Amino acid sequence: MSRSGSTSGRANSIDQPGAGSCSVLEVSFNILNCTVGSGILALSFAIKESGFGLGIILSIAVAILCWLALYTLIVTGQKIGIYKYAILCEATMGSFGFYLLNGMIFFQTAGACITYMIVIGDTIPTVLSILGWESSRQWVIFLSSIVFILPLLFYRSIGSLARVSMISVMTLPPILFAVAIRGFEYAPEHKRSYDFVGNNVFPAIGVMAFAMLSAQTAFLNFATLAQPTKKAWAQATGIAVSLSWMISFVFAIIGFIAFGEDVQPNIFNSFPLTDGLINAGRGLLGFSMFLTFPQAFYPARAAAHKVLGHEDNVRIPTDKQHVYTTLGLFIPVLVCGVFVADLGLLYQLIGGFCSTFLAYIIPASCYFLVFWRKTPITFNGAILTGGHGSHDGSDAQLVGEHGQDRYEDDEDSLEEEQEEQGQEEEERLLKQKLARERKSDLALEEAHSATPAAAAHLNRNHGHYGAISSQSLSLSTSESAQSGVSLADLAGTSTRSARRRGNKTELWLDISAGVLLVFGVFVMVLSTTITLRKMIGYV
Q: Can you give the pTM of this predicted structure?
């Protein structure tokens, strides 16, 4: 077997739909673990910046848009038989899309990894000092990352972390409980404003987008589903996004009520270092960051592999490439985590620029480039279906070196198959009816040419009364001919009807993709501009 064939087989066995073994619940926990990361700590700060009333409304809108982006991405990839985010962008936007996406994923996820290390540095040293082990922030980040994080980074599939993700998510209720119980104790010491609109709305949306983002792991998690259907994916993402919003913003609201205008980007920094219950929460939060770190690291490494040419639609990195890239990415992230400490601006910059691109702009752009283009999509000598096509994925196939589509969504297409079978049966019955009518008309014509008496007899049996004139015979013959034409046309009627229905994109997805695109561009431009102005000292 050739090396390429072997590699392709390995790729299909790892990250192609149908090869996974995770349930809907396991995948939802993986996605949840990706979204409920260090960004949750800044959401109280985001509510303060955006205003209490508008902040709650925006949080719901961001959650809904994140779910739409996850669903839209899979529908788009399924349409053309591509299940990797970077390859989808390259097929639809060329090399520009490939490098744009991988650059955004790299900086977004690497930035998220840095924030996890900053949180570890904010929490673990405090806990260790209580236990009598005095240590600096830098050494805690360095040693704990080597011991607890690095071993989790050498798996190839994100599905291997499903149980780790479940453990990480289980630490969240005690953390929320600690903040909720102790936060209200400190509420009288702080002023708060419940103004509907705040003074820094758009950067706050960037922070929310950062906290809720999981689009970069969409295809990775979809591939791990044991039954990779659109219905199962909608359920998994719906559960994950709903729980993520509930956990994140209950946490955020409690933090805002407790500390008001004094709330910090890391809410635990708003508490005194002498609070025992909060320190226990700090310990659990640091432990959770150890387990959450790989969820951000894996997409960053995948982006690096693609840019370096180690990975494409049919190839995965060799073992050496996998190890070297893992270490080559981990080391600079570790260095940044050791020396960078400002969470607030990091959240706003990454969220406002990278997160909005990944969560809204790129998924919507890919959708429109696949479903609204009139010419087929070609990629590396392969012809991919494109244009106004169906959403069922039945047309999704790669021609040429890529072979046929690797995945057929049986559950999603069952209803359509039943409808097609019903149309075929209706077509068969109509054909029989037209054939009988045509046979009867021919017999009537022959009898008329033979004897008038026989013609009258057949005419009565056929439902006509009186003699047949030459005009009526002419009309009958003409109608018979027309019936023949209709019979010929009928053979393709059902297929053409189904094709016309398939060529109409679903209206709700079209509208959703449009909202994603407009919202993403608007927030990205304003949020990034405001944050950069703040960073360079103009504001």
A: 0.66
